Amino acid sequence: MKVLIAGGAGFIGSTIASACMDNGITPVILDNLATGRREFTDGRIFYDGDISDGTLIDRIFTEHPDIRTAVDCAALIVVPDSVANPLGYYRENVAKGIQFLEHLVRNDCRNLLFSSSASIYQADPSDFSVDEQSPLETLSPYARTKATFETILRDVAAAGTLNVISLRYFNPIGADPQLRTGLQIRTPTHALGKMIDVHHAGEPFSITGTDYPTHDGTGIRDYVHVWDLAAAHIKAIERFDTVTRTAPYRVINLGTGRGTTVRELVTAFGAVTGTPLRTVETDRRPGDSAGAYARVDLARELLGWKAEHSIEDGIRDSLRWYDKRDTVIGTGGCTTPSAS
């Protein structure tokens, strides 16, 4: 079996590719390397190009006619950047995504796994948990691009053009436990990445927002190990026909089912490193929300999947990758992250 992974040279996409290889599935990677890393494609089938390039995608399917499923991990994901550059986000995440769908359909690839986001949810203020039927509230252009594209996918599936599983990721942490790949960004915008940076620099960590309606005033997230996310994709690939047999469009949450506040993440980080992390409190960032965590019953029911790694595992593997990163990708590299 072969699977096309758009954005397969980035953090999540490359981890999915590793999991595919470990499970007897051949990944075919498409990435324009805007933020992905060529090093993450070593030993893998790789095409350097954009998801909007129809000629290239036609060539991929000519050379690999046995691809039946595509995984779309190609997107920009930084909330503050999306506030500053909404046109760029709509171009990359929506306009090019539509072109990608057209190229898949033309080549008779009818199964799509879409990397969506929990950022589109309106959290239940009573406990901040959400399931797939929870109301949506998009507070940033980034979140709106994901919600908009989900609407497009729902309509395309209803028309019988594609079968789609939208996997709503919560907050990925960690790295491939074998350290083949990991977060390639040297100036991460997410909480754990910043904690690692300031830990090594001996600086305090900035808690952005302390007036949220959570039990300790800081944002709440569901931190899921990226290797667990990758395992969910393997389950979805293997069960795709079964999952979409009665509903051509499915939404499935991928999280741990546990909420962790920023202060609790700080405490866990200190427990793993053995050194308490100093903190300072600052204002909220533009586009940030209080957050949410997943109800994951549907993932268990449809995919037979649940997260196996703890938040401490994620912190530990992130630190291990930080120590090894420069031997894998050198000292240059990306400063702006994408979902790929």
Determine the mean pLDDT: 94
Query: Can you write the helix and strand succession as a string?
Result: EHEEHEHHEEHEEHEEEHHEEHEEHH
Major sheet: arrangement of strands: 3-2-1-4-5-7-12
Which class do the helix and strand fractions yield?
Answer: alpha/beta
Radius of gyration (CA) equals 19 Å
Overall form: globular
Question: Could you explain the architecture of this structure?
Answer:
It is a single chain. With 340 residues, the protein is of the alpha/beta class. It has a seven-stranded parallel beta sheet with strand order 3-2-1-4-5-7-12, with helices on both faces. It has a two-stranded parallel sheet with strand order 6-15. The chain has a two-stranded parallel ribbon with strand order 8-11. Helix 1 links the parallel strand 1 and strand 2. Helix 1 crosses helix 7 and helix 9 crosses helix 11. The longest helix has 21 residues. The C terminus is likely disordered.
Task: Describe this structure in a few short sentences.
39% of the residues lie in helices and 19% in strands. The protein has 340 residues and is an alpha/beta fold.
Tell me the layout of helices and strands.
Blueprint: E1 2-6, H1 11-22, E2 26-31, E3 45-48, H2 54-63, E4 67-72, H3 79-84, H4 86-106, E5 111-117, E6 129-130, H5 141-158, E7 163-169, E8 171-173, H6 191-201, E9 205-208, E10 220-221, E11 223-225, H7 226-238, H8 240-244, E12 249-254, E13 260-261, H9 262-273, E14 279-282, E15 293-294, H10 297-303, H11 311-329
Parallel strand pairs: 1-2, 1-4, 2-3, 4-5, 5-7, 6-15, 7-12, 8-11, 9-14
Antiparallel strand pairs: 10-13
Helix pairs in contact: 1-7, 4-5, 9-11
